[in-house]
Amino acid sequence: MKKYVIYVMTAAFALSAVFTACKKDKDDKGSDDVILVTGVTLNKETLTLGVGDTDTLIATIQPDNATIKTVSWESSNPAVATVIGNGLVTAISKGSVTIAVTTQDGSKSAGCIVTVGEVPVTGVTLNKDTLVLDIEETETLIATVLPENATIQEVYWTISNPAVATIFNGLVTPHSLGKATITVTTLDGNKTAKCDLEVTKRVPVTGVTLNKNSLNLGVGTSEQLEAIISPYSATNKNVTWSSSNLLVATVDNDGLVTAKDEGTADITVTTEDGNFTETCEVKCMNYTLPSLTTLVPTIIDIGPFQVIVKLSGNITDIGNPPYIERGFIYTIAPYDPLNPGPGPGTTTIRVSGNGIGIFEAEKEFYKDLNWNVRAYAKAVFGTTYGDIVTLSF
After folding, report:
1. Residue-wise over 187-218: b if at least 16 C-beta within 10 A, else e?
2. Residue 259 and residue 319: Cα distance in Å, rounded?
3. How far apart are CA 44 and CA 42, in angstroms?
4. What does the DSSP assignment read for 23-80?
5. Contact 87, 114 (CB under 8 A)
6. Alpha-carbon span 279 to 288, nearest angstrom
7. 130-134 and 192-200: which strand pairing?
8. Cα angle at 282 between 276 and 288, to 5 degrees?
9. What is the pLDDT of residue 52?
10. Where are the beta strands (DSSP E) in 85-221?
């Protein structure tokens, strides 16, 4: 019986030794996988900021393959500058502060001395360069000191003719008709900006009309609309333009309408004074221009001073929509009938009729001159011109 007990105890001790050895081996192996932090550095040791400025400090852990790279940030005086978890430093007030970074592993640390100083003024702007006021109106000018975070934001105002108007904290109050210059000046740096003021007796707008109430445009073409303000002597003639369907037609700030796609759109003009409106209906459609061949000249008669010539043109495609006018244009060579330049102007011969086919006209040309002649076919959305033919007699 005793012998059996001894055997059992011996086996138990052996198993215990095996388990202990395995655990120790596992612990030793795990310890070898952890790369300890040996240090930390910052990309900047010193930093200068103006109040309101920000900058980001970058922490670099040594070694690069350290297992735990977590860090914490701290400001020695948050009233001067603060720092958040990604190293973003924000300057709060004038002074000096140390921003510290500390590693979670090993409590390694590094610091950056941050100096917060005043931000000088570099300029000033006004919301308006010119100002026209009725004698019974007032308006406030707005000055913007640059940069926005400049330490000293104070400005003062002056006016060249206090009899015309006075200004207080940007508020302009007219007193008589006339002109004056308003100047704003920064307390820091004496930077200035000016506004030209005119005090008038305002003539109010009573209405607006357009030169066209309807318009047909081919897709890709443009046409200018003109707004006519009433009365002509109105003080404020500013207007805005808008389109009811920008996919069909657009309009720019000057009233130029451009067709974008087939369809209908309303172009509206609105007066700044009184919000009076007028509308033009614009119909946009796809189109093709007519096609024609080069004209053929035939001499009919020759006189002592003139030659009678029959001009023949041929329209091979009437276009869509069909052309509305055809004929010939000519000028003395070497000028182009489309752009005669400094020479004699262009003369047009219109030929009645429509459709596909030949059209003709007879014309007397003076001898001893060269003439440049073209056939043309005019459509709603453009004109097709044939090649130039030069006639010499």
Report:
1. ebeebebebebbbeebeebeebebeeeebbbb
2. 19
3. 5
4. HHHHHHHHHHH-----EEEES-SEEEEETT-EEE--EEEESTT-S---EEEEES-TTT
5. no
6. 28
7. parallel
8. 160
9. 86
10. 88-91, 95-103, 109-117, 123-126, 130-134, 139-140, 143-146, 155-159, 165-168, 171-174, 178-186, 192-200, 207-210, 214-218
Q: Strand order of the sheet with strand 256-259?
A: 222-224, 256-259, 249-251
Contacts of 138 (CB under 8 A, 6+ apart): 171, 172, 173, 174
Cα separation of 52 and 271, whole Å?
43
Q: Which two three-digit tokens encode residue 344?
A: 């004699």
pLDDT of residue 118: 84
Paired tokens of 361: 């006209």
- Structure tokens of 88? 């973003």
Instruction: Give 204-207 contacts, CB < 8 A, sequence gap 24+.
Output: 204/234, 204/235, 204/273, 204/274, 205/229, 205/230, 205/231, 205/234, 205/236, 205/237, 205/271, 205/273, 205/274, 205/276, 206/230, 206/231, 206/234, 206/274, 206/276, 207/276
Chain centre distance of CA 46? 40
Q: What is the pLDDT of residue 24?
A: 41
Residues in the chain, how many?
Answer: 393
| Element housing 10 (H / E) | helix 2-33
Radius of gyration of the chain (CA): 44
CB 42 within 8 A of CB 59: yes
Residue 124 confidence (pLDDT): 98
Q: Which helix (H) or strand (E) holds 259?
A: strand 256-259
pTM beyond cutoff 0.70: no
Q: How many whole angstroms separate alpha carbon 325 and alpha carbon 352?
A: 8
Residue 35 CB contacts under 8 Å (≥ 6 apart), including other chains: 63, 65, 66, 67
Match 């297992």 to its residue by tokens: 67
- DSSP secondary structure, 305-367, as one string: SEEEEEEEEEEEE-TBTTP-EEEEEEEETTSBTTB-TTS---EEEEE---SSEEEEEEEEEET
pLDDT value, residue 235: 86
* Residues of the chain under the 50 pLDDT cut: 1-31
Give the integer Cα–Cα distance in Å for 181 and 333.
58
CA distance 115 to 122: 21
CA proximity to 247, closest of 256, 255, 258, 231: 258
How far apart are alpha carbons 44 and 41 in whole angstroms? 9
